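dumping this here before i forget
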Amino acid sequence: MKVDKKSMLLYVVTDRSWLGNGDLAVQVEDTLRAGATFVQLREKELDFDSFLKEAKRIKQVTDRYRVPFVINDNIDVALACGADGVHVGQKDMAAGNVRALLGPDKILGVSANSVEQALAAQKAGADYLGVGAVFPTSTKTDACGVSFDTLKAICAAVSIPVVAIGGIQEKNLLQLKGSGIDGVAVISAIFSQPDLYAAAKSLYALAGEMVSP
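structure:
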């Protein structure tokens, strides 16, 4: 499965910080029922076996909804579970090396916060870019801030889809209109909410309004 601009519209990044006694696969399905178009499984604390087990469960859900499913950073888990691809940051393995390991048919997403990084990622074989943080975020405290002008410049410089990430909520999402992005990636705006379905449905509608001419 490859990506296009439409699959970027509402890009969901998982976070078990608010999971409690809930089930992540059930939560992911709630977001997909509400319109989520892409899922990234992000796990920083799980051991390999637990990560792989969760990845296989999530993939069963995303397969049913026919949406792209990538693993954050862990290429071994991605290959072992049959995920559609991997997303890597600037501090992770170089994009070109990841592409070599994944082969030509898997999805490669790369984080970027400058035009130079964006162009390098595209040249190295990235299928899409995650650009941020566009707003202050508590999910990733070391994320570099990206201004609206830089976001717009990145979108103008590359031909691959771009999704904005970082601190995006219902109240500020429409501030990104006119930047050229193809969608938004959200974490706490969905997973910290008491009703994930309602939160995702609202964000999906706002994202559609944002990308409309």
